[in-house]
Write a structure and sequence with these properties.
The complex is a heterodimer of chains A (290) and B (334). With 290 residues, chain A is mostly helical. Chain A has a single domain, classed as MetI-like (MetI-like fold, Orthogonal Bundle). Chain A is built from 13 helices and two strands, in the order αββαααααααααααα. Chain A has a two-stranded antiparallel sheet with strand order 1-2. By secondary structure, chain B is an alpha+beta fold. Helix content of chain B is 25%, strand content 32%. The two termini of chain B are 39 Å apart. Classes of the chains: A mainly alpha (290), B alpha+beta (334). At the A-B interface, α9 and α10 of A face β6 and α2 of B. Chain B: Keywords: ATP-binding, Nucleotide-binding, Transport. Chain B: It is a peripheral membrane protein. Chain B: It comes from Bradyrhizobium valentinum. Chain B: Its main location: membrane.
Chain lengths: 290, 334
C-alpha cells in the first residue's frame, strides 16, 4: 500500500465486502432497536403501537431479569474457573512424553467436536438421569441415594456440561503455549536449583498468562450466550434456576410471543456483554500487550 | 575449588555413541575450551558435566567427588546457554537473583550479591529492565551475571558468543577471558570457532566424532598436533597435506606444512606450481597454487606480493616446521 494508486485500488476492492458486512450487522441491529420501541405481540400482530422505552422498563424491572443476570454471571465465571484450573494441569500432563500421546490428545479434544445439543442430551439421559444414568448407577453401587441432578443442583449440572465442552478448548490452547516454552530456560532454571514447582510458578505460569487471557476472552464471548444446553436439559427451570439472559430473551420472544420486549432484552444483553468485555479487558487485557 | 576429572565417560543415545571413552583432567582455575566440528559431541560432553544429561558409563569427579547421579543444581556449576535462556518475565535483577532465591538466601544477601555482580559486568543501570529491552551484548552479560553470582566451582559456557555480531564477539571474548582470570574460577567453554579457542583457552580439547583427539595448550596444538585431524582443524588457512612419496619422503604417509611456513623461493628451489587464485589482503597475500602431483597448496605470505593467476612460482617449505604423519594419521616425532 505504498503509492496513492494502490491505496485507492485497495479501498475500492475492499468496499463491497465491508459494505456487505456492515449491512449484515446494521440491518438486524436497526430492526431490533425499532422493534424494542413497539408494543408488538405475535398473538395479535395487527395491533402494534409505539410505546417508547416502556419495553426496557418492563424487561429491567422484571424480577426474572436479575435472576437471569446472576445465573449468567455464575455460569460464565464457574465455567471459566473450571476450564482453566483443570485445563492447565491437563495441558501439563499432555505435554509429557507418554505412550500413545496422539491418541490421548485426540480423546481429550473430542468433546469440543460434539455439538452442544447432542452433548447435553448425552449428559441428561445417559449420565445424569436419576434412574437410568451412569452416575445414579455408581451411586447405588456405593450405596448412596442417586442425585436428581436437574432438580437438586440444576445450575451446577448445566455448568458441568458446559465446562466439559469447553475444557478441551482451554487445554488445547494452553498445550500449544506449553510447547512453545523455551527448553533452555527450563534447563537454566534446573541449573539454578529450581524445583519442578518453582519452575512452574516462576517460569511456566508467567509464560501462560497470555494464552490464559485468550482463553478467558474467547470463552466469555461464547458463554454469555449459552442456550442449547439449557433448552435441552432443564428448559430454564426448575422455576428460573437455570434461566440466563439468552434463555430469558428466548422465553419472551417465542414462549410469550412478545417481540417488543424480547428486542429490548436483546439490546440489554448487548450492553451487558459490553460491560463484561470492558471489565475483562481492564483486568486481563494488559497481558496481551507485547 | 573446581577440579573436574572425567574417567571413561561414555554417552549413547540409543545405538548412537556420541561420546566414546572421554578421559580428561581439568585443573582448578584453568580455562578449557572444547572445540570441534559440529556434531563432534562437544556440547553433549558439556551437558554431561552440567548434569543435564545422564552418562551411559564412566565417572565425572568434581573436586574428587563422583557426581554421576547428582542433580545439576547440587554440582555447584553454573552455565551460560547459547540462547542466553534469560527468564523473559523477570527483570535483570530477578534473573540474576533467581538462583540465590531458589537456594533460600536471605534477601539482604541476595541484594548485595546481585549488586556486586551487576557492578562487575556494568549492568547496574539496567537492573530493572526486562531482557527484551536489552541489546544482544547486554543480554549476554546478564546470562554471565546469573552464572557468576552463585560463586560456582566452575562455569560452563555453551557457544555463548555465537549469536553476537563479529565486532561484539571480539569484545565479549576478551571480557569473558578477563573476567575468568579475575575470578580465578575454572571455566569450560564450548565453541566451534577455533579463533575463540586459540585466544581464550589455557588448554584446548579437540573433539572429533566423540573422541578426544588432543588435549593441550593452544600453541602446543599449533606446533605439535598429535594427528592429521588436529593438524587440519587448528590453524587458518588449513594446513597443506601432501603425500610423502611425491614429496620425496617415502617413509612417511603424509607430510603437512602450514601455509605460513611455505616460502616463495627462487626458480628451481622447492616445489613448482601455478598460481590459480591470489587473494590480496594487504597485510597478507594468500596464494592458492596448483602444484601438479602435490595437489592444491595454500601459501600465506606476509606483505603484498604482486602475483596473479597463471604465474609460475616455486614454494619451499620450512624444513624445521614440517609435520610427518604415518599411515594411521598419527604424527611421527623424531
Amino acid at each position: 500500500m505504498a503509492t496513492q494508486q494502490t491505496q485507492v485500488l485497495g479501498r475500492a476492492l475492499l468496499t463491497p465486502a465491508v459494505a456487505l458486512l456492515f449491512i449484515w450487522m446494521i440491518v438486524p441491529l436497526a430492526m431490533t432497536i425499532y422493534f424494542s420501541t413497539l408494543h408488538y405481540s405475535l398473538l395479535d400482530s395487527e395491533a402494534w403501537s409505539f410505546v417508547g422505552l416502556e419495553n426496557f422498563r418492563y424487561f429491567l424491572t422484571d424480577p426474572a431479569f436479575l435472576t437471569a443476570l446472576r445465573n449468567t454471571l455464575v455460569l460464565v465465571g464457574s465455567v471459566l474457573a473450571i476450564t482453566i484450573l483443570l485445563g492447565t494441569p491437563l495441558a501439563l500432563l499432555l505435554d509429557q512424553q507418554v505412550v500413545g500421546r496422539s491418541i490421548i490428545r485426540l480423546m481429550v479434544i473430542a468433546p469440543f467436536f460434539v455439538m452442544p445439543t447432542v452433548s447435553a442430551l448425552v449428559w441428561k439421559n445417559l449420565l445424569m438421569h436419576p434412574v437410568s444414568g451412569l452416575f445414579a448407577w455408581v451411586a447405588t453401587l456405593v450405596g448412596t441415594t442417586p442425585i436428581d441432578w436437574f432438580n437438586d443442583v440444576p445450575l451446577f449440572s448445566v455448568i458441568l456440561i458446559v465446562a466439559w465442552q469447553w475444557l478441551p478448548f482451554a487445554t488445547l490452547i494452553l498445550l500449544t503455549a506449553l510447547q512453545s516454552q523455551d527448553e533452555e530456560q527450563k534447563e537454566a532454571a534446573e541449573m539454578d536449583g529450581a524445583s519442578a514447582l518453582s519452575t512452574f510458578i516462576y517460569l511456566t505460569l508467567p509464560h501462560l498468562a497470555r494464552p490464559i487471557t485468550v482463553v478467558i476472552l474467547i470463552e466469555t464471548i461464547f458463554l454469555l450466550t449459552v442456550f442449547a444446553e439449557i433448552f435441552v436439559t432443564t428448559g430454564g427451570g426448575p422455576g428460573l434456576a437455570t434461566t440466563n439472559i439468552a434463555f430469558l430473551i428466548y422465553t419472551q420472544a417465542l414462549v410469550q410471543y412478545d417481540v417488543g420486549n424480547a428486542s429490548a432484552g436483546g439490546l440489554v444483553a448487548v450492553v451487558i456483554a459490553n460491560i463484561v468485555a470492558f471489565f475483562l479487558v481492564r483486568i486481563v487485557g494488559r497481558n496481551l500487550e507485547a | 575449588m573446581g577440579q573436574i576429572t572425567l574417567q571413561g565417560v561414555r554417552k549413547s543415545f540409543g545405538p548412537v555413541n556420541i561420546i566414546k571413552d572421554a578421559n580428561l583432567d581439568i585443573e582448578n582455575g584453568s580455562f578449557v575450551v572444547f572445540v570441534g566440528p559440529s556434531g563432534c559431541g562437544k556440547t553433549t560432553l558439556l551437558r554431561l558435566i552440567a548434569g543435564l544429561e545422564d552418562v551411559t558409563g564412566g565417572q565425572i569427579l568434581i573436586d574428587g567427588r563422583n557426581v554421576v547421579g547428582v542433580p545439576p543444581a547440587k554440582r555447584g556449576l553454573s552455565m551460560v546457554f547459547q540462547s542466553y535462556a534469560l527468564y523473559p518475565h523477570m527483570s535483570v535483577r530477578g534473573n540474576i537473583a533467581f538462583g540465590l532465591k531458589m537456594a533460600g538466601l536471605p534477601r539482604s544477601d541476595i541484594d548485595r550479591k546481585v549488586e556486586a555482580a551487576a557492578a562487575t559486568l556494568n549492568l547496574t543501570p539496567y537492573l530493572d529492565r526486562k531482557p527484551r529491552e536489552l541489546s544482544g551484548g547486554q543480554r549476554q552479560r546478564v546470562a554471565i551475571g546469573r552464572a557468576i553470582v552463585r560463586e560456582p566451582k566452575a562455569f560452563l559456557f555453551d557457544e555463548p558468543l555465537s549469536n553476537l555480531d563479529a565486532a561484539l564477539r571480539v569484545q565479549m571474548r576478551m571480557e569473558v577471558a578477563k573476567l575468568q582470570k579475575q575470578l580465578a574460577t575454572t571455566a569450560i567453554y564450548v565453541t566451534h570457532d577455533q579463533v575463540e579457542a586459540m585466544t581464550m583457552a589455557d588448554k584446548i580439547v579437540v573433539l572429533n566424532a566423540g573422541n578426544i583427539e588432543q588435549y593441550g595448550s593452544p600453541l602446543e596444538l599449533y606446533e605439535r598436533p598429535a594427528n592429521l585431524f588436529v593438524a587440519g582443524f587448528i590453524g587458518s588457512p588449513k594446513m597443506n597435506f601432501v603425500p610423502g612419496e611425491v614429496a620425496g619422503e617415502p617413509s612417511v604417509a603424509t607430510l603437512g606444512v602450514r601455509p605460513e611456513h611455505l616460502k616463495i623461493g627462487k626458480e628451481g628451489e622447492g616445489w613448482p606450481g601455478t598460481v590459480s587464485v591470489a587473494e590480496h589482503l594487504g597485510s597478507d597475500t594468500f596464494l592458492y597454487v596448483d602444484a601438479g602431483k602435490l595437489g592444491l597448496l595454500t601459501a600465506r605470505c606476509i606483505g603484498e606480493f604482486n602475483f596473479k593467476a597463471g604465474d609460475r612460482i616455486w614454494l619451499s617449505p620450512d624444513p624445521a616446521r614440517l609435520h610427518r604423519f604415518d599411515k594411521d594419521g598419527v604424527v611421527i616425532r623424531t
